[in-house]
Design goal:
By secondary structure, this protein is α+β, with helices and mostly antiparallel strands. The protein has 3 helices and 5 strands; from the N terminus they run ββααβαββ. Helix 2 runs parallel beside helix 3.
């Protein structure tokens, strides 16, 4: 037996683009004692689930997209998502606490998605040299 340490990590990033230009991404890492074929099946199923949810951002990146919306110029930003995750709900609470940004949520019964909108803070990077 050779004891050379743990096997190298294997991660799969799967990206799909719809006919309307929406990009969905999913990723997963090989778990202990999992076959690579099972990892592929798991990631493919995760992508199909994201497509089923609808929206323009996959569930793993919702909070990041909403954070960017908070920092935009003082104008209304909108984003359509498939479902709110508990992590995203907590992120919305933190954004309100940190920046005072409140999101308006509107359910779209036709597409079974949620449209979030907010007014950005107009954040500017003061460390950047102004010209």
């Amino acid at each position: 037996q050779h004891h050379c340490g743990p096997p190298p990590a294997v991660t799969v990033h799967l990206i799909a683009q719809s006919t309307t230009g929406t990009v969905m991404t999913v990723e997963a890492a090989l778990q202990q004692r999992e076959l690579p074929e099972d990892l592929g099946t798991r990631v493919a199923a995760k992508l199909l689930q994201e497509v089923q949810y609808g929206g323009c951002v996959d569930t793993d990146l919702q909070s990041l997209a909403l954070c960017y919306m908070c920092l935009t110029p003082e104008d209304v930003s909108r984003l359509r998502i498939g479902r709110l995750t508990p992590f995203t709900i907590e992120a919305l609470r933190l954004y309100k606490q940190a920046w005072g940004v409140e999101f308006k949520l509107q359910a779209d019964e036709e597409t079974k998605t949620i449209v979030l909108s907010c007014v950005g803070t107009g954040y500017r990077n003061m460390a950047r040299a102004s010209t």
